[in-house]
Amino acid sequence: MDYDRRRFIQIAGLTTAVGITGSQNADSANETESTESHAVAQKAAGGGPQWAMVVNLKKCRKDKGCKACSMACNQTHNIPSTENPRHEIKWIWTEPYEETFPSQENHFAPDSLQHKQIPVLCNHCENPPCVRVCPTKATWKREDGIVMMDWHRCIGCRYCIAACPYGSRSFNWEDPRNSLKSITPDFPTRTKGVVEKCTFCEEKVAKGEKPACVSACPEGALVFGNLNDPNSEVRQLLRNNFSIRRKPGLGTQPKIYYLV
Ligand code: SF4
Q1: Closest residue to atom 3 of ligand 1, CA basis
Q2: Global pTM exceeds 0.70
Q3: Measured between alpha carbons, how far is 160 from 140 in angstroms, rounded to an integer?
Q4: Can you tell me the mean pLDDT for 200-225?
């Protein structure tokens, strides 16, 4: 049993502690995965959109120092910068390949992947453990699959941070407004003591626009679209290319797909 799975199972204990039954043993993870796959397939047969993102690692230039996506995200969402790495607020950031895909890493992977910096963000999981543990419903999954946050309802318990196996949530240990050099007025700032994360730019999606990171990428490495539309660009990319997702054994069913 690897560290990630063991930690994830430990989190299941936390889920139970807040009165919600978890199902994070290996067998049930597989069962959940097939159930969720079925749910996605069912939704694909009809119904509203299911938003997802495809990250084409052959096009991404993070390794060359490109920060276009994270800079656009930070500016759009009033994300503060801090010198203290333990207090960092991250919506889209990078992790080395071997830490992003620990179950798929091997010593003989191509040089183009070994130690490559991979853009990571909230996976907007089909089966999000963060939602199950939140005691105030400050985080929830919408019909279109976006995992949302209501910062006014967040009480800062950080159960969601413990439950997320991807490190996709950040806690405001400091007042974020103190370290904003400029403020984008049409997006709310947050306060000390609340958790935050990527929301797939739901405010832009509602207007028919792409997420800020997708629009900012100069290489077209990030593609956002509707999994339920067989003609969407994301479906075409997934149909014609081999893709992987992060920690598939956990049964969370991430909606960020990586082309390697
Ligand atoms: Fe929740 Fe983490 Fe999945 Fe995002 S990646 S939906 S924060 S469990």
Answers
A1: 125
A2: yes
A3: 11
A4: 98
Residue-level pLDDT at 63:
81
Which residues partner with 69 through β-bridges?
Answer: none
Best residue among 122, 132, 137, 170 to mutate for probing ligand 1, ranked by most atoms within 8 Å of CB: 122
Q: DSSP states of 84-116 as a string?
A: -GGG---SEEEEEHHHHSTTT--TTS-TTTTT-
Given a contact cutoff of 8 angstroms between Cβ atoms, the answer to whether 169 and 125 are in contact is: no
For residue 129, how far is its CA from the centre of ligand 1 (angstroms)? 7
Q: For 165-183, how does the pLDDT look when each residue is reduced to its tens digit (9 = 90+)? A: 999 999 999 999 999 989 9
Q: What pLDDT score does 16 carry? A: 42
Residue 246 token pair? 């992060």
Q: 63 C-alpha vs ligand 1 centroid, how far in Å?
A: 25
Quickly state the pLDDT bin for 103 (edges 50, 70, 90): confident
* Residues whose CB falls within 8 Å of the CB of residue 237, separated by 6 or more in sequence, listed in order: 54, 56, 223, 243, 257, 259
Give the residue among 25, 4, 36 at the shortest CA–CA distance from 227: 36
